[in-house]
Amino acid sequence: MRQPEQKLIFELSQDGRIGHALPELDIPEVPVEDILADECIRKEEPGLPEVSELQLMRHYTALSTRNHGVDSGFYPLGSCTMKYNPKINEDVARYPGFAHIHPYQPVEQVQGAMELMYNLQTSLAEITGMDEVTLQPAAGAHGEWTGLMMIRAYHEAKGEAHRNKVIVPDSAHGTNPASATVAGFEAVTVKTDERGLVDLEHLREVTGEDTAALMLTNPNTLGLFEENIEEMARVVHEAGGKLYYDGANSNAILGIARPGDMGFDVVHLNLHKTFTGPHGGGGPGSGPVGVKEDLVPYLPKPLLIKEEDHYTWEYNRPDAIGRVKPYYGNFGINVRAYAYIRTMGAEGLRKVSEYAVLNANYLMRKLEPHFDLPYNRHCMHEFVLSGRSQKKLGVRTLDIAKRLLDFGYHPPTIYFPINVEECMMIEPTETEAKETLDEFAEAMIQIANEVKEEPEKVQEAPFNTVVNRLDETRAARTPILRYEKNM
């Protein structure tokens, strides 16, 4: 059943309705003409909606129910790790001692917050096998750029500024080549072999004296662990390059494997993915970066350090790449991540990955008979299916994703990685119950059967959402972003 149409709040407006009560002014009133130039003063009322408090509450509550989130339904968005955000993290982040402090307060007044951040740095260094961590970067792609800038500074300090190429697999996140370009490098593509892993022979071909780094996600975006990672590290290191680890898929290896032990020199983590900070529209990101010892001098400044029992900022860092974010990262997300790590403990973090891998393999085998499985082997925390067979019947992966909306599920990532035709990347995460996975699988199987029996139904979906299928080009290029009277 389609959801009822919702009016704009301007359409609810009636002259004279009031949804607020402001206290009487307790300071002398100053005429606006005394403080603003004439051209800055409105000549007419702004045209704000006039609604009651009840109308206001119902309107925005109704709007909130139309935004799909991990608290409202299954969200198998591959590579994005849309995992549940434990509410204890939210409670801790709202403690007055964390929520009401200000970045400009003297360090003597915020020692508790600095201790939390220092302990978080130490924990993330241990989890990843790095020697030092900075919490400054604001999100994953920002962490990528920060890591690459440190690699660039490292090579320049050694007199090897000619190293201007960053190797990126063809299945990499789109931010990888973009970050390399923004950092002043040229992105070079390395192919994927028939098993879904980096092609070692091609890697050897593209690695040379101009190689600055190899950017890699492990497990990769096909959900497969790079079995030859130690040999890949040897190839790149012998050529004088560095290994950069994209932490987007870290949820598969917590407590089991560490990038530092695999040979990586730089790591970024997504606290808003792996460590349960709110993701997407729910809150800001956080992309801490960890490095091995030879890259520590280039970490952004200031660096949070501990001197005996006192925490302070170290600004005297002549080789640092500079500050990459005002203050010291997104503090509220750091608090949430630290609460999660302390709540789970080492054993709990390992179970996170074990259950994430178990759920992904269970769901993959449930769906295997009904869709093409490009790489028929054990997956990690996510897996890819292909809608090639459905495409032959006139139904695209996009159609399948739209039909899933009718069942109340957020669709998986589609058409990524780009080296899998009609790709669907599915990541169930560790917290979903078997019943949820079974129900999602049944929905997918029903859609696969509909493709064979009544393909037009899938082609025309969705039917139960607020609006029918949108013109995607117009929606992206000519959105209506503000209300205009009499439009």
CATH architecture level-2 label of the domain at 87-343: 3-Layer(aba) Sandwich
Termini separation (Å)? 29 Å
* Main sheet characteristics: 7 strands, mixed
Structure classification:
alpha/beta
* Superfamily (CATH H level) name of the domain at 87-343: Type I PLP-dependent aspartate aminotransferase-like (Major domain)
What does the average pLDDT come to? 94
Strand content: 5-15%
Number of helices: 16
Report the strand count: 12
Global geometry: globular
Secondary-structure element pattern, one letter each: HHHHHEHEHEHEHEHEEEEHEHHEEHHH
Query: What integer value in Å does the Rg equal?
Result: 26 Å
Helicity, in percent?
A: 25-40%
Side-by-side strand order of the widest sheet: 1-7-6-5-4-2-3
Uncertain regions spanning at least 5 consecutive residues: none
Protein name: Probable glycine dehydrogenase (decarboxylating) subunit 2
InterPro entries: GcvPB, GDC-P_C, GDC-P_N, GDC_P, PyrdxlP-dep_Trfase, PyrdxlP-dep_Trfase_major, PyrdxlP-dep_Trfase_small
Domain Glycine dehydrogenase C-terminal: 353-459
Pfam family, one: GDC-P
